Predict the structure.
Amino acid sequence: MRSLILGALGLVMGQVSATAEPIDDLLAQTEGFSGVVLMGDTNAEADFYAHGYADDTVQRPFSEDDVWRWASVTKQLVAVLVMQQVEAGKLSLEDTLAEVLPEAQTRHAKTITLGDLLRHTSGLRPPTKLPTEQLDPVKYCSGRPLGRPGKRFVYNNCDTVLAAAMVEKVTNTPWAELIQQKTFEPAGMETAAAKRFGEDVETVVGRLSDDEAEPQLDVAFYGAAGSLVGQGQDLIAFNAALMNGDLLSDESRAILWMGLPELGFVALGAWSFRAPLDGCEGAVHLVERRGHIQGVQTRNFIAPDLGKSLVILVNRGDFEFGEVWRGQGFSYTLLSEALCSNP
């Protein structure tokens, strides 16, 4: 049974886990925290904690039913979609842009691989501005590169947009439709969806800071790089399905989570590394994906060896999470409490 703990109201509903009070206290005592935390397992059952307001203007507290913008956590799900097509034999991580998307007019297209796109080592130049109208994503993401592929990590939304376009080319199916069929449905993700252009979707209201509201933005323009929305519980369900082998085979998942030390432990669509946590014996394997669009930030942590995952959603663009691998900050403290206390 999931438990609901509303830190802002001091209410508890359902059965509370042994770590509930410390986590609830942590959220209340952390300066600037406004959001929710879900701690889940391989059964997709989760404890839910919240502190602050989903909409500050009317002081509406957070709810498990809230829909959030997942931002760049979208990239993590798209990477799984790509690996599903690799498993099906329709793509290879060594396939190049030129082979699959000859319409992508960019230098080095013959050597930029699908793996490069998912690791952000394509060498493509990140766009300086988000489009203000619906454009052909392949044309928008083509152009003069920064350098040769495979040499260094450069974060770029267009890498994931082009990876999704490669999936669309070999399946003749829009990526948003395919992810519904191949990921959302088998994982039991009931509210997850790709935001469509002009679609009115009520999501948690973000703020750049306590004193500054965020400007209007249609996240549909991010496409496969950041347009997914849904409840936090759906990310817990995704993590559980991934750990259980419902979305990928063990072999494909191992490839997906192969963090490269020479590139900052970047894997395919996420980061995969081992980190010491307070209270755990030995370093813990963590898969981390971050998302941030204006006033909303997302963190998705999977601890596969422990069969646990942690989803953090905040509606403050200036909230500082810290760095787990440095052993400091909010994420480190929260993970230590959630994963290493009373296991």
